[in-house]
Amino acid sequence: AGQSSVQFRFRLSSDFSVTREGMAIDQFSVLPSGTEVYDPAARPFTGNTTLAVSGSGWTQWQLSGGDVIWVNPQGQNLGNTDLKMETAFPPLYFPGVNQYMTPRHWVVEPGTAPASNVTLRLFLTEEEWDTLRNRDAALNVGIVKLGITHYHGPNDNTLSWSDNNYSVGDTDFITPSMITVYPWNNGYGLEFDVLVMSQFGGNSGGGTNTPLPVEFAWFRADRVGGDALLRWATATERGSDHFRVETATEVRDGVPVWRLLGTVKAAGESSELREYEFVDREPNKRGVRYYRIVEVDADGTTTESEVRKLFFDGEAGVVTVRPNPFADALEVLLPSGEGTAQVQVEDVRGVTVWRRTVALGGVVQTLRVDASGLPAGVYTVRVITASGSEMVKVIKR
Q: pTM value?
């Protein structure tokens, strides 16, 4: 402690035979005393914690003095971020991605989605690495061949590895060349940059350990009168050519019958968040409509988004907002029905500035929105029910 420099000396010796002997050193790590990876074998744990993540430094999740997940938001405010971890021995093999997975996997769910890359450092023990390496001979060259499987979809917040997870949603792969490995006292820290945070697990690489052409960040469908406004964003694009916008009004044997509505040109190559939109203006919509976006790569490879659905009753709209423009208050006429309706007002940035949940009583009812504290400008009134979502643009004078 207190020393300004550290010196290392390596002494090599050899026998007198003709065999060539030597040593290669490719990385030094000087760690503080007591720096360890959390060891689930010694202290079993499956669960989560919530930490406020913001600024430009590391937010560290530790259990019993051992590191689990570090998050560096790179100057962004992610709000209350849910961190989860599960371990399972031995490593599991998933035919869906042709890979063995590490015994440990992690879930990172930010309260506010980042606008640019965030740095993660995920920790696993030497024992966990050894159990994976013993299952796949391709890893015998060392941990530098370890990749990361990144799954995001409807199951990405569950602590359960299952091959079924990969049947819905998107799975992409963070290759070894994109990961920096830091030796820890009893394991390793795997550091990489990512935009969409969800579920992660170490993988044994292999032929499928290549990035998908597109990583969807989000996909939203909203009813605007008799039309459907479809908006989506991509976190990354590699060789993308165009997007197919598809809808289905019929389901056969539990599977939607998709047909093409139109196409949207893709960016081609991008490592930044890119947003797209398409309006379904087909007349006389009625009943439930399903929507999805299919990205088509230049070589014909496709990536599908999650599925969204909207309900149309054949009228111009089921939600009325008055007056428009308005001064201090709005009236939202809600449709009859069962269950609840969530009514929210969003500003031009998409930030919710007013929200209320209302029980639907089977009759049309009126909800008053006090907007006297809002500055003049353009707002969106969004009504979300079990049958879908509808939005109305309004102006405050």
A: 0.49
